[in-house]
Amino acid sequence: MNRVENKLVLVTGASSGIGEACAKRFAACGASLILVARREERLLRLQQVLASETDVSVHAHRVDVRDRESVEGLAAQLEKTELVPDILVNNAGLSRGLCKFQEGEFVDWDEMIDTNVKGLLNVSRCIVPMMLTRNSGHIVNVGSIAGHVVYPGGNVYNATKYAVRALTEAMNIDLVGTNIRVSSVDPGATETEFSQVRFHGDKKRAKAVYDGFEPLTGDDIADAILYVVNTPAHVNVANLVILPTAQRNPYVVHVKGGAGRKR
Ligand SMILES: NC(=O)c1ccc[n+]([C@@H]2O[C@H](COP(=O)([O-])OP(=O)(O)OC[C@H]3O[C@@H](n4cnc5c(N)ncnc54)[C@H](OP(=O)(O)O)[C@@H]3O)[C@@H](O)[C@H]2O)c1
After folding, report:
1. For the domain bounded by 8-261, which CATH number is listed?
2. pLDDT (tens digit, 9 = 90+) per residue, 216-249?
3. Whose CA is nearest to atom 41 of ligand 1?
4. Each residue of 61-115: pLDDT tens digit?
5. Which protein residues touch ligand 1 with a CB less than 6 Å away?
6. How far is the CA of 85 from the centre of ligand 1 (A)?
7. In angstroms, what CA-CA distances link 168 with 104, 162, 193?
């Protein structure tokens, strides 16, 4: 049964990876879209592709989720045009660096905390009141296995994803008695631009992260998110952890020839 047809879905971080895959999956199911990211040209390209392949309406907005005023502006515009999202996928996020805490860069820490935690808060704080007015909605926070298990060098990224897990729980508690559901989908190693961003554009180092095993794809995670939001209204998948078969926790990965530490 397709329960997302004719729904309106806001996806943050839709210009790449998991967010882009979500946009394509949702559009194929007949859901209209509000796409958010900083790289507008990519959003416009995706908008064109979806327009040529589907009948759904697709709105693209260049918004940096760290910029509270910009997020508030988007929310005001959506409210004015009566485009209240039925589903919010809080996907925008990143990691920066993989090194010991004592060697970490403040600028990397700020970027991760501002995007993964404060960005998610900015968007949710602006969209949830609109959902409350209608007493319906579903928020899916894209967390990570990094929010369940800390790995060497993950420190501040881990902390941001632990925070996402805490916020998913907190939102669920605070929204009890309403029809608004809050879920988190927490992936393991997924081959997107994630590692390129983590290693500041070092494509060779990024590629090596996925050497010797089959990682998840953006489509795998989009399928999981689609499952979560397609459940009946009385069902709330609070937390869904999804790993590649070769990976059993962030650092136990079977790499060609035996289980071992990948990182
Ligand atoms: N890949 C993995 O192994 C993995 C595992 C677990 C969890 N995750 C999580 O999955 C989510 C998506 O990551 P991905 O793997 O798909 O990586 P990706 O390909 O690098 O995509 C990240 C997306 O986030 C957007 N974004 C980053 N900062 C933003 C900001 N300030 N404002 C608006 N959008 C912003 C990027 O768009 P712009 O640059 O155009 O703004 C991009 O669309 C993240 O939350 C990540 O932590 C990934």
Report:
1. 3.40.50.720
2. 999 999 999 999 999 999 999 999 999 999 999 9
3. 38
4. 999 999 999 999 999 999 999 999 999 999 999 999 999 999 999 999 999 999 9
5. 12-19, 37-39, 64-66, 91-94, 115, 119, 142, 144, 187, 189-190, 192-194, 197, 218
6. 20
7. 27, 10, 25
